[in-house]
Design goal:
Oligomer: single chain
Number of helices: 0
CATH superfamily of one domain: TolB, C-terminal domain
Largest sheet: 5 strands, mixed
Mean pLDDT: 77
Low-confidence stretches: 1-37, 298-321, 345-354
CATH architecture of one domain: 6 Propeller
Structural class: mainly beta
CATH topology of one domain: Neuraminidase
Number of strands: 31
């Protein structure tokens, strides 16, 4: 029987001060029974009616990037969207890409620039933007159907790893495609290692791990039986922490180093510390699996995976109620950033029809492993 962590009696209660409609950033205080610091700022794109946030990244300056799409009109459809907020939550710039497409993933490069991967039916693409939001180059590739970009990782040396529909691609910093290798068709995550990228994921019937070196050679692989369900991966020290049911870590030989009896769809890491979301809890983990911090998260819909749930939050856009969906998480060692959508409307009496790309930053620097 699979186990989830329900024993910790932590609930977060949002107390909303008056929200000025003209402010691009919406700070809100949080009562946290643990005494730990909660969300420090939250922001949305433009209160338009058709914007979605699909992924989030924190760069070296603490700025937050949310990528997704913005609906243009009935002729063009959507445009790829990236919004950048500085570390204080003030909007720095907005980038809108080619007509008719969306971004699935975004990553911050070591030099402060940005890479984003997107798609439309019949093709997928990789864009590179400067730290100021100017397009530097774009690469486009044909595909059958409407592919989904599962993951995108900017390596410390500037290499770019992209996972899409059962294939791992490695790009040079200038956008040159160096190699492509087959993976599990429903693999979901990439984690960098000292050897090369590790690809993980699948479902409860077909999950596996595949470790490649920097030249694209398969170094090790491991099939995971139906007691594992892997959805995310992140490097923590010399190990890779895998989010799923259960949460566990592997070494470079792909053997299990430790396992925790809880379920999570998300993991993000910086140095020798990771954070995971399990139900309404945000937990900090050390490289050895020690739980070094626990804080409550507002009850929201974490989309996908075994911990999804939905609760309406009544602090959106002034007096209007709405629902918050978080699609992605990143971590820089002191702050956790969430990206997703804020839906406007009344869940009991019908939606008013607007939704918006959303970012939130939680300060977790007070608790260290």
């Amino acid at each position: 029987m699979r186990s989830r962590l329900h024993a910790l009696p932590l609930l977060a209660v949002l107390i909303v001060a008056g929200i000025a409609s003209s402010l691009p950033t919406t700070p809100f205080p949080v009562q946290d029974p643990t005494g730990l610091v909660g969300p420090s700022w939250a922001a949305w794109y433009d209160r338009g009616s058709t914007d979605l946030g699909r992924d989030v990244a924190i760069d070296a300056s603490g700025a937050v990037l949310v990528a997704g799409s913005s609906y243009k009109d009935s002729v063009v459809g959507s445009q790829p969207l990236i919004v950048k907020w500085d570390a204080a939550g003030e909007r720095a710039w907005v980038f809108l890409g080619r007509d008719g497409a969306i971004y699935d993933r975004v990553a911050a490069m070591p030099d402060g620039s940005v890479v984003a991967a997107g798609r439309d039916c019949g093709y997928w693409f990789l864009d590179h933007l400067s730290g100021q939001g100017a397009l530097l180059w774009e690469r486009t590739f044909p595909s059958g159907g409407c592919p989904r970009i599962q993951d995108l990782v900017a390596e410390p040396d500037g290499m770019i790893d992209l996972l899409m529909f059962g294939t791992l691609h490695r790009f040079a910093p200038d956008g040159t495609l160096l190699w492509a290798r087959p993976t599990n068709a429903i693999a979901e995550a990439i984690a960098p290692t000292a050897i090369g990228p590790l690809v993980a994921g699948g479902d409860a019937f077909a999950s596996d791990l595949r470790l490649f070196d920097t030249g694209g050679n398969l170094v090790a692989s491991r099939h995971l039986d139906d007691t594992y369900d892997v959805h995310g991966a992140a490097r923590v020290g010399a190990r890779v922490v895998l989010a799923g049911d259960p949460v566990f870590a592997v070494g470079l030989d792909l053997s299990t180093a430790w396992s925790l009896p809880l379920a999570s769809s998300w993991v993000a890491a910086a140095g020798d510390r990771a954070v995971i979301v399990s139900d309404e809890l945000l937990l900090g983990l050390g490289a050895d699996g020690d739980v070094c911090s626990v804080s409550a998260r507002p009850a929201v819909d974490f989309v996908g995976g075994p911990v999804a749930h939905t609760v309406l939050l009544y602090h959106l856009y002034g007096d209007l109620p709405g629902e918050l969906e978080l699609h992605a998480m990143d971590f820089d060692g002191a702050h956790v950033a969430f990206g997703g959508d804020r839906w406007g409307g009344d869940g009991f009496h019908g939606w008013t029809g607007y939704f918006d790309a959303y970012a939130e930053v939680d300060d977790v620097g007070a608790a260290t492993c």
